[in-house]
Amino acid sequence: MAVYIALSNLTDEGRKTIKQKPDRIKEVNKEIEAMGIRVLGQYAVLGSYDFVTLLDAPSNEAVMKMSVELGSRGTVQLISLPALSVDEFIKTLK
């Protein structure tokens, strides 16, 4: 399993959904878990993105599939980044 960072922005439709049903965020996280991807942490943030989510996924393909599935709903736009811990990064340089 590998760590990924998902940066997401709600669309207008997504903002309407969250306003009417804030618990939808947790429901989507359960759907992500059902895809074999573990949600390690999630934060609502200010700035260029609405949410930052840390994921543990088996492959790039699994994250791509998740991104397409969620993005096709029209409520969120995602950018997914594979991540290495600083210790792993240093190890690869040695």
Overview of this protein structure:
The protein contains 4 helices and 4 strands. By secondary structure, the chain is an alpha+beta fold. Strands 2-3-1-4 form a 4-stranded antiparallel β-sheet. The relative contact order is 0.28.
Keywords:
single chain, 94 residues, alpha+beta, Alpha-Beta Plaits, four-stranded antiparallel β-sheet, globular
Report a brief summary of the structure:
This protein is 43% helix and 33% strand. By secondary structure, the protein is an alpha+beta fold. Strands 2-3-1-4 form a four-stranded antiparallel beta sheet.
Sequence stretches where pLDDT stays below 50 over 5 or more residues: none
Q: What is the number of E strands?
A: 4
Sheet/helix structural class: alpha+beta
The CATH topology is given as: Alpha-Beta Plaits
Using the 3D structure, state the CATH architecture.
2-Layer Sandwich
Mean of all residue-level pLDDT scores: 97
CATH homologous superfamily annotation: Dimeric alpha+beta barrel
Task: Please outline the major beta sheet.
Answer: 4 strands, antiparallel
- How many domains make up the 3D coordinates? 1
Overall radius of gyration: 14 Å
Q: How much of the polypeptide forms β-strand, as a percent range?
A: 25-35%
Number of helices: 4
Topology pattern, helix = H, strand = E: EHHEEHEH
